[in-house]
Amino acid sequence: MRTRLVLIGSKGGPAIRPGGPSPTSSLLEIGGRTIVVDCGLGVTRGLTDAGVNLKVLDIVFITHLHSDHVLELGPLIHTAWTAGLATTVRIFGPPGTRDYWHGFLQAMKFDIDIRIVDEGRPDLRDLVDIIEFGEGAVWTEGGLTVSALRVDHPPVTDCFALRFDHAGASVVFSADTAYFPPLADFAAGADILVHEAMLAEGVDRLVARTGNGARLKEHLLASHSFAEEAGQIAAAAGVGRLVLHHLIPADDPSIGEADWTAATRKSWAGALTIASDGLVVELADESSA
Ligand SMILES: [Zn+2]
Ligand SMILES: [Zn+2]
Fold it and tell me: Is 275 helix (H, G, I), strand (E, B) or coil?
């Protein structure tokens, strides 16, 4: 059974700019399941561009409730519904996910009610199962195991790295985190570690452009990891491949793949992928390995 990872949206932070990439979301196909991890702006278009039929949307995981990870969760489910979704979608998210969903339903009440009556659609409210999770074992089904680790992303306390294991294949998402050594144990031996990353030389230019300078820089430094630190985690965990994701900055024309690679190579000599929107990472079929 093949494992495929598609980096749907690759930038950190919710703002988008002309020609730039989209906020964070990923598609993980593992153990025959189609799993969406995080729902930043653009996730719906990105999934359809990756060939996913929204009608059979099944499992969604949200790492934390920052908008660059959750803004398009409601619109994704609603769009799947209008595309013909008739089976339950399970949404796994941190505490507060249920409130988000109920708020979204309230915001869209007029449209949802009218489509049920006017178009004979099933009630969207009955098609979603919200499972709020904490650290530890999250879900096991059909040989797929998902576990969560609380990471260091102040001031957010409920932010979780996720590990997906199926038949010897394993993929770990760091979520948003400052350098956090326990993540190396959590990701030990994984085939793929998807880790967030920031590049020091881009941060000053980014905060100057965004306009809320000092406070934004303080937040970035306290709650995110530099590329070199992501490399340190990958090396300590002994993963098969490191994927740098949730890039900060992601749309600075003077920073390219070579800069990310150079920074990461200070600490990581193994297989390396720098995310871009729509990039596919395949894992060899374990039965042929
Ligand atoms: Zn983020
Ligand atoms: Zn965040």
Answer: coil
